[in-house]
Design brief:
By secondary structure, the chain is α+β, with helices and mostly antiparallel strands. 27% of the residues lie in helices and 7% in strands. It has a two-stranded antiparallel sheet. It has a two-stranded antiparallel ribbon with strand order 3-4. A hairpin with a 6-residue loop joins β3 (111-113) and β4 (120-122).
Length: 146
Amino acid sequence: MELMVVWVACAFLAAIAASGKGRSGFLWFVAGCLFGVFALIAVLVLPSVKHTEVVYVEATPKPDPKPEPVSKPLNLGPGERLCPRCGAVNGPQRASCHRCAEILPPPPPTMRPCPHCFMEIDARATVCGHCRRDVEPATQPSPPPQ
């Protein structure tokens, strides 16, 4: 009977010591019931558990630095455009740059109406293929001021 009282006392002391060190008192009480004085010695040898408080801080986004411009290629493929911000080559279907997400200017028109017969001709043509009259070559619109 006295051995049982000592065994339960070790279980209670193990639970008190464990909760003082930041560990689960209930689990160490169960361990004390199963292992007696060995659980008490184990919990006294174990280091304290340090509870760290997690603080969530909302980060403010930093402005994107301007990417370094890429050297301009000499020949662009059909419909390819250069980004005005970073100089990256973008395909004809892209509305924004794949590298810096800058909105791209609209591509130059590939066809335009002839000023004389109003048939569609190539934008770079100097002679209409339908009425055979001379036409002024299309000019590139100047970029909008920033």
